[in-house]
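User: Predict the structure for this protein chain, please.
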Amino acid sequence: MASVLQRARDFTTSAGVPLSTAVSSFNPSDVGSGLFSDVSGRAWLATGLVVAGSLLVLEQTVYRMKKKHLPGASWTIPVIGKFADSLNPTLEGYKKQWDSGALSAVSVFNIFIVIASSNEYARKIFNSPMFAEPCLVASAKQVLLKENWVFLTGKVHSDYRRVLNQLFTRKALGMYLVHQDAISRKYFAEWLQNASSEHRESMLTMRNLNMEASLRVFCGRHIPTEAAYEISDKYWLITKALELVNFPLAIPGTKVWNAIQARKAAMIYLTDAARKSKIAMAAGQEPECLIDEWVKE
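Assistant: Here is the predicted structure, written as structure tokens:
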């Protein structure tokens, strides 16, 4: 035995390998540690995949349970749902959803949305504030604020609407029509002057007419012309944020965030218009717009 050990020492020495290295280079614990590390990494990966898969299955199950018999996609795209549709919305897509049934369902970022497209269901929703409330779209309350009158229900809504009815008497409507007639004639003259045989998009052109008529009917001369143009631009940002399907979070750069900033800017002008109206009515001037009638009441 001694001669065998001596020959081993002679071999390692002649090979230029230190004896201590030759003897201790193999450590069984190193093998166990490596195997454990490899198994542990695979276990965490498998666990993560199982959890993610379970959440996706749960998401689809919840969607189908809520949807039940309602028209709409049988399955929804994981996590984002119909959000991709908002990146390139089309009237054809909206009409397809609208025509799918009196009630239909979509899901956007796990927000389950039921869409009512018939007068019957619309009346039921409006008359059942304890069970449902109109929200237009998921982002509407963020953009318009939850205390906006369009979200009021029950007695508060009825009382508010009763006050609004006083603003639409024959006398008041006759006053509003003066603004509408003058603005419509101005735009009709511009359209005839710029008429062309070539096809043109007309939506924004019509919108400009509606926007100016609306602002003048509501606020009269209490809003300067340049402010009216800016409000029109801001309202367009709000319109884009109120698309049927949209990214629901107000992150800088998103349509919802841009709309919130637009609402804040427009409110500065509208608040100032209300202030000017109060001053005019207190001075005994005759009402010339809806806000004047409101202040006078």
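DSSP finds 13 helices and two strands in the chain.
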